[in-house]
Design a protein that fits this description.
Blueprint lengths: L8 H13 L2 H8 L3 H15 L4 E3 L4 E3 L1 H26 L6 E8 L4 H14 L3 E8 L12 E4 L8 E9 L1 E5 L1 H6 L14 E5 L7 E5 L2 E5 L2 E6 L2 H9 L4 E5 L5 H6 L3 E2 L5 E2 L2 E8 L6 H20 L1
Helix pairs in contact: 1-2, 1-3, 1-4, 2-3, 5-9
């Protein structure tokens, strides 16, 4: 097979990242390289191709018409490269290679570190790069092999495998409950008290159910954090009613009574957490191994609780 490429494939992928983010700085951060390197690769790519791909001024970066066409091919090349990588990995008896993983920060540093440690211990030929993120990311466009997410898939070229369902419950500190003018016996009362919300992915609708009755909450959000540990501290300090994962992050507090359930007979919808990756990596032994490790840590967490 003859190789007659007039340009560097790596530079083409760098160009794709710049187009997606409309920023050299953001692309450089995601790629883990200096901005000067990104700029140099783009300049070399334009010189090799003999065309202008980008227009830059002090305020914005735009893509030329021909640059947009080149970008569409770059996306396909990335998908093919992932396919080659998956094919090679699938032929190996032991998972090996590097895996880049994005985990929402609301799942917690403890979970991410335990999954990462167990994975690296079980598979000594593997390398792992975990990033805690506070926004929704795309496994292809943002340069990850695997991302953890909670929403429905927006892209049919991706695969989602459920890792676990995160059970949630309403709770507060005993002091906060004692200061209320009357006990909370109906979910409608929650719309009138300060509420502590966890904010990964932005504001969302919440509802509670009891038997066949369902009530959609419209709480007065006093504080929002994209990490359950932060929300738990707000709740412990008596700042409002909040939502916590069932029996995982509040085990000690529930046992000691420093956090108490609110409306325990009313159930919040569980949050399904999926591991999402490109279809081209379906047969990757590295991804399969990481998925099994992520599931196992949840089993161990539940056992500890």
């Amino acid at each position: 097979m003859e190789q007659n490429l007039p340009f560097d494939l790596d530079a083409l992928l760098v160009f794709g990242k710049v187009v997606e983010n409309r920023s050299l700085s953001k692309a450089a951060a995601l790629l883990g390289m200096p901005k000067s390197t990104v700029s140099r690769k783009l300049t070399k790519l334009e010189a090799d191709l003999g065309i202008k791909l980008l227009r830059k001024n002090t305020h914005q970066l735009t893509v030329t018409d021909l640059g947009e066409q080149v970008y569409s091919h770059a996306v396909n090349i990335l998908a093919e490269a992932n396919g080659v990588r998956a094919l090679v990995e699938g032929s190996r008896s032991e998972p090996q290679g590097e895996l880049r993983v994005a985990i929402p920060i609301f799942l917690g540093i403890d979970y991410a570190s335990r999954v990462g440690t167990a994975f690296l211990q079980h598979y000594p030929q593997s390398r792992l790069d975990i990033r805690l993120v506070d926004n929704l990311v795309d496994p292809v466009k943002d340069g990850f092999d695997v991302v953890f997410g909670t929403g429905p898939l927006q892209d049919s070229t991706l695969i989602a495998r459920k890792v676990f369902s995160l059970g949630l419950f309403l709770c507060a500190s005993p002091d906060f409950v004692a200061r209320l003018p009357e006990p909370i016996t109906d979910p409608a009362q929650l719309d009138t008290v300060p509420f502590i919300d966890f904010g990964f992915g932005g504001p969302r609708k919440m509802s509670v159910a009891r038997h066949k009755r369902r009530y959609e909450l419209s709480p007065q959000v006093r504080a929002r954090a994209n990490n359950f540990q932060v929300s738990k501290q707000y709740i412990l300090q008596g700042l409002g009613v909040g939502v916590m994962p069932t029996q995982i992050i509040c085990t000690t507090e529930l046992r000691e009574g420093s956090i108490v359930p609110v409306l325990p007979e009313w159930k919040l919808d569980a949050m399904d957490v999926h591991m999402i990756y490109p279809f081209e990596l379906s047969f990757s032994t590295l991804i399969t191994a990481f998925y099994e490790t992520a599931c196992q840590i949840i089993v161990e967490n539940s056992a500890r609780a």
